[in-house]
Amino acid sequence: MEIKKIILGVMAAIFCCSLSLASDDLASQLLKASDRSRGGVKDGIQWVAKVESSENGEETSREFDVKANGDNAYVEAIAPAKNKGEIYLFNDRNMWFFKSSLKKPVSISARQKLTGQAANGDIASTHYARDYVPVIEKTENLDGQKTHVLLLTAKSKNLTYDKIRYWISDKSKLAIKAEFLTLQGKPFKIGYLKYQNKLTVDGQTFPFVSELTIVDAKFENNKSVITYSNPKSTQLSPSIFNVNNLTR
Amino acid sequence: MNQFWNFAFKNLFRNKRRTISTATAICVGFVGLNLLGAYIYRSKKALDATSVYSAQRGHISIYKKNAVEQYQVKPRKYVLTKTDIDEIQKVLESYKNLIDYTSSKLSATALLSNGTKSYPVVVYGFEPESYKKSLQQKDLLLWAKDWVMPSQLENLDIFIKKPETISITQRIGEVMALEYPFKNNEYLQLAGKNLDGDLNAINVLLGAEHTTGLQFLEDTVVLLPIQKVQELLSTDSVESYSIYLKTFSETDDIIHHIRQRFDKMQLSYDVFRFDDVSINSMHQGTMGFLYVMGGFFVFLICTAVSLTIINSLTMGIIERTREIGTLRAVGFNVKQVVELFTKESILLAGLSMIVGIVLSFIICEIVNRLEIKFFPPGASQKILFILNWNMSIATSVFILLMVVTWLSSYLVINNKMKVKLISLINDSGEN
Amino acid sequence: MKFKIAFRNTIKNWRHSLSALLSLSASFVALVLFDGYIDDIKQMYADNFKYRQMLGDVIIENKNLYSKDGLANPWNYWISKSEQEQISAILNEADIKADLQVRNLQIQGMITNGLQSQILLGRGFDVISGEKMRGEHWSWNVTYGKPIDRFESRFVVALGQGLAKKLDCDWERDPNRLTFYGGYEQIDYPFTCPNYDLQVSGTTVDGQLNAVDVQAVSLLDAGYKDIDDRYISTSLEVAQTLMNTDKVTYISAAFNESESTNSKIVSINKKLENVSPDLQAQSWQDHRLGEMFRKTMDFLAIFRNFILVVIVVVSTLSVMNTMIKFVKERTKEIGTMRSIGFTTHDILKIFFLESLFLSFLGTFAGLIFALVFTFMLNSAKILYKAGMLSESVAFKIQYSSYSYLIATILLIVVGTLATFLATRQVVKSKIVDNLNYV
């Protein structure tokens, strides 16, 4: 009898572990899949982003040409005309601002970019599978879709957001909602995603993000809507992400 | 009448010891008031000059209504546009013979970057021509030379010749590990949010330095020609409009008239004097403290001098009671006796204070030659301790103490004259 | 007998005595009032730093906090949790006895009410011990609303009035809030804001973005206008939550007994060596925060010395004049006394005693007048702007027993010395010359 109990217990433990492992596996798979549709592809990717913001009662609209690869992003303003040619370069968490009239780019540290487009840059980042450990918290119905709610915990302290709550559609494997949490677990910003674009990489076509709406969790009238268009996979030379090349 | 002055003068020497000690007390009190007045006078002049010229406020500053409080919060709404400036200039046409020059100001918060490190600063934009004129103003060089660096005077044209030049303090240079003296061929970048809320950046050229004079601002404030600040903020508007008058004395009048004109034309601008607490709390605070302390000291000295006079006079009267009786008996009326004694006191005070004028002048000269330096609270560096002896102050103190003397002596003598003549004559002089 | 004679003479020569009394009391009043004013400024500063700003008697922090690297990366120089515990143990030791300890964490970031965002500088501190350290007068340290320690929730903030204005808060301005002894009346004056629910955001010690929701519950005067425009005062919980740390910037402590503060600080520093060689204890007067205080006191010392010299000279001359006259007028009397057998020594003693009575009476009268004037001036609550302070301060005069004592001693010495010298001069002359004096 006792041996039976032990064997049953061990089997239950193995089963739970497998479930847990299976669950972790599922979480990682979901995250990888969702990353792909937000730009997390092995090659470089390029798209046009239109950002319409409403902050503290003031509205702005900007358009950018974005080239991203891994931790790096090269973002060039293309509209309105007065901003054309301004460049934001993201290297890991550092940001550089440059325009042709400048002799050197301006370094803006992570601590200095708390508002505006610079802050949005962190939210638009797309390598969650690489940077975060996912755990499935629950499943829930969101906008008529069954979604897995993942809690993503940063693998290292040098990421802007320590925790993100992520809703990934069970059917499409696309992230449709993200809550960027404070260290105390409260939502700070909320992102809503739509995927009406298509992207082809290595002959494979899949949905790609078309809109990301970022809303201030506390003050909902402050929000930015990023509209993605013309996404394409492209070979990007690492040199474009080198800050020293900005002045050449 | 002249005989009374003669008598009064001769009576002073009847009791030399008492005359000398009373005179010394009055003289010391007078010198004390003069020296304190000299310090306060100098402080005010220095603060006035730096407020108007160093800080580029002009004698009069004009802002959009409520901009002083709200510009930092909503800069786009509270700037003065070209249309606003045109309107203001039209109003100022009527006073052009009183105005020396005008200029605009614009401020912003930004990051000063050397390519590897960024440091938050407050940028004050100014017009280079106005900067040059202001630093050459004789009032500034006379009263506040400590606040103007020699390199600034040597390079007055630098912002005209090279409008990209930025002026930083030595403290900022240290924090950014920049080589000192600052090389005029090194470019830095200034980045900040423009009025549309976008990040923007410009090149600036190192090469000028300044001191704010204030400890709190010494690691924060940089100066830059206004066109560059406008470029950073992507605007052609300004924050305020400064008016530099030909003389200080016209300031209040002109402010009054300008406000009236603005009201009449229903223009929404605020007009401030350079030392208004809204835009210059430092000036108000410093002078407020000095005036209170000075006022208190004046009160104490006047009281002490008054009592010295009363004391001296009372003793004199006691001693000369019989003499007073005799004067009355030979025909001097009460008024004439009062006049005689009062004139004695006035003469004594007057002579003491004339000596005091010379003494205070000499003390001021000695102190100034010693070139003593001291650290006023809140200042970023030591400044010269200077006493500016001033005839107006000496005259005011002279008049004040004369009035105190006259009043004190008149009251004492008058009181004494109420005694009957026979009692005066019979007085032994000991009680 | 001589004592009786001296006393009767004082009464008999009342007119002379009155002059002397007047001189003495006026001099006394001038000296103590001015000294009292300077003392009040000193007291106001000390009060402000020690109580209002909760700096206590000693500040403990990392000595490299204000180095170049310290200014760029302050969190590397903060006091860790274990160090805090060790410091607390040291402060509780019998030879130190600093029961009141306040941990403080300085923060910076952004604050928003959803309509406006502003840069903020702030301080989080232990609110309960902080309130105790502020003492009775500054327990209520806010101009509008209630102090943050009066709330159960720790997620509350007091806004600098300048910052509150930028967040569109409004209130009925009344500069006359200061009480007689400093501090504010314990009244919850209302203020309105478009939104009391605020969010404070910033980067943590690790550089991660974080935010904390807080309630604006009061407004305060941060002291200096430039700071008032961006200042918040909040609990240590809010500050540590925002920065995601259990460290603190510095610890301030107040000794149970105020004697031998310096030797206690020396003792603390010795013991801190066992905790960390970088930690140091200083009084706030010696600290960087006290630099303004030191410079102001140096500056005031110049004025104080100068003005006191003037007042002392004028007063001394006035008193000497009176006393010398006092003696000279009674030359005949002295002659009479000598002729009936009083020795030089007797006469000197009698006049010395008379001058002593007068001096005591004069200074006593001065004391009464000084107390009355002080009370009247303090009650008048005259406000004036002083230096870079954001709010007006009250013109007050301190009751300083030390000043009163020094002024008394000075005037008694001057009075009796003058009398002695004058009397000695008279008794040196021949009796017949004394009798014939006119």
Question: Which labels suit this protein?
Answer:
heterotrimer; B: 431 residues; alpha+beta; nine-stranded mixed β-sheet; C: alpha+beta; 52% helix; elongated
Describe this structure in words.
The complex is a heterotrimer of chains A (248), B (431) and C (438). With 248 residues, chain A is α+β, with helices and mostly antiparallel strands. Helix content of chain A is 19%, strand content 47%. In chain B, a hairpin with a 5-residue loop joins strand 5 (187-193) and strand 6 (199-209). Chain B starts with a helix and ends in a 5-residue tail after the last helix. Chain B is built from 17 helices and eleven strands. Chain C is α+β, with helices and mostly antiparallel strands and 438 residues long. Helix content of chain C is 52%, strand content 16%. Chain C has helices at 2-12, 14-52, 68-72, 81-92, 127-138, 161-166, 225-228, 236-243, 261-272, 291-328, 331-339, 344-380, 401-428, 431-435; strands spanning 58-62, 100-112, 117-125, 144-145, 156-160, 197-203, 209-220, 231-235, 250-254, 279-282, 383-384, 393-394. In chain C, helix 1 (2-12) packs across helix 12 (344-380), helix 2 packs across helix 12 and helix 12 (344-380) packs antiparallel against helix 13 (401-428). The longest helix of chain C has 39 residues, at 14-52. The mean pLDDT of chain C is 86. Chain A binds chain B through residues 55, 58, 60, 62, 82-83, 86, 88, 97-99, 101-109, 112, 116-118, and chain B through 111, 113-118, 120, 187, 189, 191, 193, 196-203, 234.
